[in-house]
Amino acid sequence: MTCFTRCGGFCYPTTPRPIFIFGDCDEGNSIINPVLPTSFGYFVSTGGTATANSIIPLTLASSRGSKITQSTTLGAITLTPGEYEITYSVNSTIPAGGTASVALYDNGALLPNSTTTVSGTAGNNVALTKTVVLTVLSTSTLSLQNTTASDFTYLNANVLVKEI
Asked: Does the pTM of the predicted model rise above 0.90?
């Protein structure tokens, strides 16, 4: 690793990411701290039938950190306090009623502005996607749910949760 110096600056190359301290000559030192990676969790479901108003079961596929984990509630996600960007995608077929709809729920309550609804011809394939930001004040359970009045078949579903 090469450390660039100005007016006697130095660095700490053995930290996870180098911390550079530059002497400003006249103003003292400027410290550039490392950017730490955020936690994330990627959850998937390979398809099935989601009954009306039920959780679409997700399984943890990949993660970093300990803030976002698989919940003990079937198919749900546990979040510790923090701020998160949540993106979901569900590829499904429109049921006989002509509408497919999914939404995110936090501790059993519908998250505002998290619902995606698509109407069309029954049997057509559709993609239901949405990104929301959620501030969690105490440990909570996040779930993706079929909010359609009837069952629908989905080909796959995934949720990416990133700490921001």
From this structure: no
| CA–CA distance, 143 with 5 (Å, rounded to integer) | 50
Predicted local distance difference test score (pLDDT) of residue 12: 46
Number of Cβ within 10 Å of residue 98's Cβ equals 14
On whether the CB atoms of residues 64 and 37 are closer than 8 A, the answer is yes
Options 3.40.190.10, 2.40.40.20, 2.60.120.40, 2.60.40.10; CATH of 40-163: 2.60.120.40
Alpha-carbon span 54 to 102, nearest angstrom? 10
Chunked mean pLDDT (size 10), the chain, 164 residues? 47 49 53 67 94 94 94 93 96 93 96 95 95 96 95 95 94
